[in-house]
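PROTEIN DATA CARD
Card holder: Small ribosomal subunit protein uS3m
Chain length: 243
Origin: Cutaneotrichosporon spelunceum
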Amino acid sequence: MNINNNMLVKYNEKFFPDLNVISNGNCHFYKGSERGNISIDNSVVERTLIIKNFFSAIKALSSVPKYVIGVEKLNIYVSYYRMKNKKNQNIRYALNQNTVNNLGDLLSKKLKRKVELRFINLKSPYLDRTIRAEYIGKNASMHPFSGLRKNAIKRTKIKKIIRQYKGSESNLPSDMIGLKIVFSGRLVTERLRPRKTVSTAKIGSFTRNNQLLIEHGSYTGKNARGAYTVKVLINHKKGKNYI
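Structure generated from the sequence above:
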């Protein structure tokens, strides 16, 4: 993060002036190692991209933002996970009240209304579908899919008994009853195989009915053998508040 006021640039309303930085006039949010043009189709894509780049700069994986629109303000809920890495220890200071306030100011200007940010620090990358897909994808350069699959399934708690909730039970939002991981592409950690090869790992049930909810998350990366994609599908049984 760069907070030197003498080096700040004005944020353009239509395009980012620097392809590697987003600024609100007070603070820069860098894209890290990512490169390329930024395409903004609408305000939802733009604000999601801003939040994504904010967490990317502090080496964190973030979920898809959830927006709760109120009369006077917009609440934005984002879950994030900081990957355990010795290189990340020197940037712990990056996520603080000052940088979060700068992000909130930028989003408020873009949305033209008051914004309240609520961040949830996850202790495991397996608690969110988007973070889970990106975590598996980023580790694909070091481990074969078989190892990633084994680790993901081992850390997933599946509810095996499907039944209705009783009135005396707690208001749990959902139970995870199924997990599916679909990997397409080629890894440098595996023997060379056809480009269109698809590997799948599955645990639990994916039966469809009106009490179940299937969530999707995906991540696409590149290596020396081309692009690869990780898709994660999580099947939930809705809690009694959602039935």
